[in-house]
UniProtKB/TrEMBL annotation:
GO molecular function: aminopeptidase activity
InterPro entries, sorted: DUF805
Protein name per Swiss-Prot or TrEMBL: Aminopeptidase C, putative
GO cellular component terms attached to this protein's record: plasma membrane
Pfam entry (one): DUF805
PANTHER family named among the record's database cross-references: INNER MEMBRANE PROTEIN YHAH-RELATED (PTHR34980:SF2), INNER MEMBRANE PROTEIN-RELATED-RELATED (PTHR34980)
Length: 155
């Protein structure tokens, strides 16, 4: 839980680096909380037969949580990319790619954009799951302590 709270304390810090554990713990907790809140929203829905969104406490809590964690999610993702030796601008390219997939229309385009979306998701997940660049890079020292005198670990 300290790892999660540490990310929240650095909610708008886009500089520096973030270890895999820091990033994936934050993503996992956010996913579990989001899933729980959507289940709560479904449970509290007054009429499950009604199409379209229904506004209830669970839905409101879900959106408050989503908005509250949006900036920390972006920041820790940028720091994670830095740790793998990539610029945070990769995230902007990925978001633009996702928007293009969602905004495409038509059945055949929809299937193609869905496959592109899946491919983009896999590429981004693999990028974020890679090991840290050892030692110092242009975004700072390794959060693992590698490259600091006396703390370098053998490979």
């Amino acid at each position: 839980m300290n790892t999660y709270l540490n990310v929240l304390r650095q909610y708008a810090r886009f500089g520096g680096r973030a270890r895999r554990r820091e990033y994936w713990t934050f993503v996992l907790v956010n996913t579990l909380v989001g899933f729980g809140l959507t289940r709560l929203a479904g449970y509290l829905s007054p009429d499950l037969g009604v199409r379209g969104p229904s506004l209830n406490v669970g839905t409101v809590l879900y959106w408050v949580f989503t908005v509250a964690t949006a900036l920390p999610t972006l920041a820790v993702t940028v720091r994670r990319l830095h740790d793998t030796g990539r610029s945070g601008w990769w995230l902007l390219g990925y978001v633009a790619f996702l928007l293009a997939c969602f905004l495409s229309t038509g059945t055949s385009v929809g299937v193609f954009s869905g496959l592109l979306f899946l491919l983009g998701l896999i590429v981004m997940a693999v990028s974020l799951a890679q090991n840290s660049v050892p030692g110092r890079n242009r975004w700072g020292d390794s959060p693992k302590g590698e490259g600091v005198s006396g703390l370098s670990s053998p490979r």
